[in-house]
Amino acid sequence: MSSRREFIKKTGLSTLGISLLGNSLLADNRLQRLTILHTNDMHSHIHPFQSGRNKGLGGMAQRSALIKNIREENKNVLLLDAGDIFQGTPYFNMYKGELEIKLMSQMNYDAATIGNHDLDNGLVGLKKQLKHANFPFLIANYNFENTILENTFSPYKIFDKNGIKVGVFGIGIELDGLVPKKLFGNTKYLDPIKISNKYAKLLKDKHKCDLVICLSHLGFKYKSQKISDLRLAKETKNIDLIIGGHTHTFLKKPVISKNLDDKNVIINQVGWGGINIGKIDFVFQQNNYKINLKKSSIFVKNK
Questions:
Q1: Structural domain for 138, as ranges
Q2: What is the C-alpha to C-alpha distance for residues 158 and 168, in angstroms, rounded to an integer?
Q3: Closest to 120 measured CA to CA, from 83, 82, 76
Q4: What is the pTM assigned to this prediction?
Q5: 91 in a domain, yes or no?
Q6: Whether 48 contacts 65, CB under 8 Å
Q7: Do 188 and 143 meet the contact criterion of CB atoms below 8 Å apart?
Q8: Angle at which helices 2-9 and 98-106 cross, to 10°
């Protein structure tokens, strides 16, 4: 417990190393590896689960240690979150999301998107916590005009990792019927398929991104025709990877779907509560990349 308290003050733990690609492959200096680490639906789980089938799993100190070790192995790492950072433990009830955002900032998250529970204290509550974030929240299909969050968020961000250009944009679920109207106010929900096509094309064609990632809080799939990550993949172009959330889906390995151009789209989601970290390695050679999906999810364990 003392180490957890210390992490809340200052992150600085380390633990075992995890390598998915052999050194012989990366010995060729013409190749560049990019590692995508991702989480979703943390729901304010600061500590490992204390009971039940997930006992001993999760915890932000343990996650920080794994991330630190992976970054030491590979300099080209992006750390992303697909929303629902807030709500689920007394930490949120007491600190209103401040602790979660501060700890994610200490872990140097690169970007996150907005989940429906991130609005559980309304637009005012979310705005109060944004000052603690040293990473951007990206959301392309929420229009915050005429709200206190107008001009607060960017739809996308481009990262340059040793010459590899990665475009990341965020897509949120429809709030009406899921979140009380008083919490999201005049926020307008825009068609996620139309908006995704717009920004994926912009990132791929205009900005010449080598990889386009959608941070989605739509949910993996539904029995109905509700828009999901699977539908998004099939009805769009130019997206290479969809990192999902909302449905708390534990995928043992990423799902590959075909887009409108009959090209592969990778979809992944790693459950909830910080139990897993998603890990996907891309190996680039000039304008092409290969992907390693041998092991795409790492359990966060309390050692």
A1: 32-299
A2: 6
A3: 83
A4: 0.89
A5: yes
A6: no
A7: yes
A8: 80
